[in-house]
Amino acid sequence: MGQVLHRGATTTEAVRRAIQHSQESLRTLARRHGINPKTVAKWRKRCSVADLRTGPKHPRSTVLTVEQEAIIVAFRRHTLLPLDDCLYALQATIPHLTRSSLRRCLERHGISRLPEVEGSSKPGRKKFERYPIGYFHVDLAEVRTAEGKLYLFVAIDRTSKFAFAELVERADMQAAARFLQALIAAVPYRIHTVLTDNGIQFADLPKNRKGPTARFRGHPFDRVCLLHGIDHRLTKPNHPWTNGQVERMNRTIKERPRCSATTTTPTTSCVSTSATSSLPYEFICKCWQTDRIDLLSIPSIKRRD
């Protein structure tokens, strides 16, 4: 089973555990595992094999004193002024106060965001437009495992939350097209829309999309969509939150160690839907019975008339 490691890791959990249990010298272990003796000494002193968080354990300001931070916190909580107004008012008392040090101070004390005021004109968050099941968000993420670097293709249905993931060694156009074909084969109903970002795995570069070569050749991902009658939509450039559902699913899969195993076998995920508090399988069966959708690969379910 693999584990997600940071980019600069030179050891795995198995190597770290072997170092902690070994009685050999630092130089011998370093030569055996091909690492620096300082790395061996570091892991021999630790009690666990997990990476520690970077940064200071107790964050504090190197510019402001404790009394000055108390003044800033009290002023912010009493006045509820925006950041720039607080800076302008406090610079007379704390001349060396800068905007960045003020912002970091407010973040450390958990008051960097002002509370919502009733009657404010700030628009609320928009909800996803309701679509019938078959609208999939697709994304690609990089995964660092004990065996090396792999790429994770993830797809999730906007409505039913049916999720499908696959680990691959190379993330190119052909890999994305094969993932889409595997997704179509795994989903028990028809996929009508796929939303992806503008990565080269899913679409040509914007400057090359209207050229004669692109029109004649066609992107492999688009060819699979055309073959199965799927509408391929792209997110707006530099707007990753448009594809936020699959971005969150990427993080969920990375946080589960059992999902980080180095395997290229596609897997499906059963997460609860926020709208129905049911599993995707139950939600799909409900849609089949109420909306009369056509299921493609669940022959064990019988429709109730």
Largest sheet: 6 strands, mixed
Strand order of the largest sheet: 5-4-1-2-3-6
Low-pLDDT residue spans: 258-264, 268-277, 298-305
Q: CATH superfamily name of the largest domain?
A: Ribonuclease H-like superfamily/Ribonuclease H
Shape: extended
Span from first to last CA? 46 Å
Number of strands: 6
Strand content: 5-15%
The first-level CATH class name of the largest domain: Alpha Beta
Number of domains: 3
> What is the helical fraction, as a range of percent?
25-40%
User: Structural class of the secondary elements?
Assistant: alpha/beta
Compute the number of helices: 11
CATH architecture of the largest domain: 2-Layer Sandwich
The overall pLDDT average reads 78
Task: Describe this structure in a few short sentences.
With 305 residues, this protein is of the alpha/beta class.
Description of the molecule:
The chain has 305 residues and is α/β, with parallel strands linked by helices. It is built from 11 helices and 6 strands. The protein has 3 domains: 52 residues; 43 residues; 156 residues, Nucleotidyltransferase, domain 5. Strand 2 and strand 3 form a beta hairpin. It starts with 12 loop residues before the first helix and ends in a 15-residue tail after the last helix.
Q: Which key features would you list for this structure?
A:
305 residues; alpha/beta; Nucleotidyltransferase, domain 5; 6-stranded mixed β-sheet; 11 helices; extended; disordered C terminus
